[in-house]
User: Fold these one by one.
Assistant:
Number 1:
Amino acid sequence: MRIYAIGDIHGQLDMLKAAHARIEADKARVGDPDARIIHLGDYTDRGPDSAGVIQYLMDGIAEGKPWRAIRGNHDRMFTRFVRNGIAHDDHIKSGKSWLHPALGGTDTLASYGVEAEDGEFEVAHMRAAKAVPVEHLDFVENLPLTYAWGDYLFVHAGIRPKIAVERQTEEDLLWIREGWLDYHGPLPFTVVHGHTALDEATHFGNRIDIDTGAGYGRPMTTLVIENGHEEIVTETGRAPLTHVVPS
């Protein structure tokens, strides 16, 4: 049994398709065309084609491909703005709005043909509400926050340690860093997550972070888990996953 996971996508449709191509080549090599692929969220913002990413995932899932997708914090910011004009999130401590270049909301709206500038929230909201298909919003809003598979839990940001999965809050599952990234104790499963970009995918003993910064133009990582063993899927085959032993 095996499963594949893809880290944060951030509007990088070409990278996503290339990641799928690497996975399909690996599936063909091992003879397992039905192995699942889980996408860890953040389909929107920063990259050039958030609209294309969402449509691509919608189409593949509708066609019955063995794909699963969970929701990320940028996906929530996207739908909240388009639905309700909410431009700020309390988790952005700098106070930057979703339309600030650092967060990438204007890139997402541009992929739907909407011109927007930071600060022009009402105008941008009106344009976005007309341009973004309601099917895209429904798809993103109905994505689950976690996906369990064997001894692994897939989630966008992480979990609050020592709290049962069913009692985790949406805020933590989408945003958590403090109290999570520095937690080195035991967990009832290995958590595979994104949200916090690293130079390379890394196994920290109780968790695996596979966000390698595609939103910033860096390579998108694909992970394969097979019989309790984790590796990176590359264009030339599989490569070892970096392991860090917390001090």
Number 2:
Amino acid sequence: MTPRRPAPAALALTTTLAVVLLAACSGPGSEPSPGPASSTAQGSPAPSPSSAAPSTTPSPTPSTTPSPTPERPDDVLAGWSLEQKVGQLLMVGVSVSDPAAVSAESIRDKHVGNVFLHGRSTAGVDATRELVDGYTSLVSRRTTHGTPLLVATDQEGGLVQVLRGPGFSEIPKATEQATWKPATLQRRAQGWGDELAAAGVNLNLAPVMDLVDEDDAADNPPIGYFGRNYGFSPSTVVRSANAFGAGQRAAGVEPVIKHFPGLGRVTENTDTDARVTDDVTTRDDASVRVFARGIDAGARYVMMSSAVYDRIDPDTPAVFSPVVVGDVLRGDLGFDGVVMTDDVSAAAQVQDRSPGERAVDAVDAGVDLVLASADPSVAPAMADALVAKARQDPAFAEKVDASARRVLAAKAASAG
């Protein structure tokens, strides 16, 4: 997400501080721009990611629990332990400037099946690939049932660009991209996708499809203030975001459209503020319909906002809301792909729940993939909570299976 808009006296520092405060993916969890707990200042040299690649020395094999639900022999989940299934529902953060051992341990010991590169690096494609290879080498029958990792990052452009340096282009912010013809944007986005693919990244938490009101853009900290929006009308958002997504997909990198049902009208940042609320957006709003157009264009992944939407479900943040996830996104829009959270490890908006509750509440609402990027140390607690809930609640265990199948199907479709 992004920081609060600075006061006029601090405007001279906006560019530098923005890189330190912008939140990841949605701004929030995916660490797109400077995230509160993660980023290196843009333009300052970052240590080579390869210097801290995880050791691949096997650790003691943890005990695993047979799946509580029987599968058919031809079921894609046949032979998977419950812990391995749960691992497919988690994505753990890996700092590109200071990788933490906890992320590798989460793969080895908790079977986490996906990683997110966050922070800021100027080390370039080759060093990033070396870092990624250190994590993908942990894949085995014991850890992820042999299933490859989703390797994600935030490469939107402008202030929200995790990876820079030799081999990576400087990507302009979305408001500039929106001035290009769709064919031009698609071609350039494919080139940016080729760079990510060369670095081992196969999932980009972009493009932003949040609809921002032009008159209030400067007062919209997560999106409008930093020019992360593709213009100000539904038509420009749809045209440009779909062109960006098509280019990435052509390069073998899956795009993630975000942040459903839209962060373009909030006046605070869910990364740094609690009780962030949108009191404008409705279930059939234009803000929602732009996501429908993104889904129609082939999006396989949608990221949820963690704001509360008073006119849709006033009681629960969207990421934990069965109404927003199940009734609106799955029901009204007919989306049957992977639904993921923004960062729910460190965002202020979700701190009223424990890490385990955040993971359980998201999956219970219909989310498939839980992102713990800014504070990867909470991923083990999330895994344990999901396993415990599935063991004691057969209905929840079925939701775990359904989400694991959707993640595996999306991985297979991308690989194919």
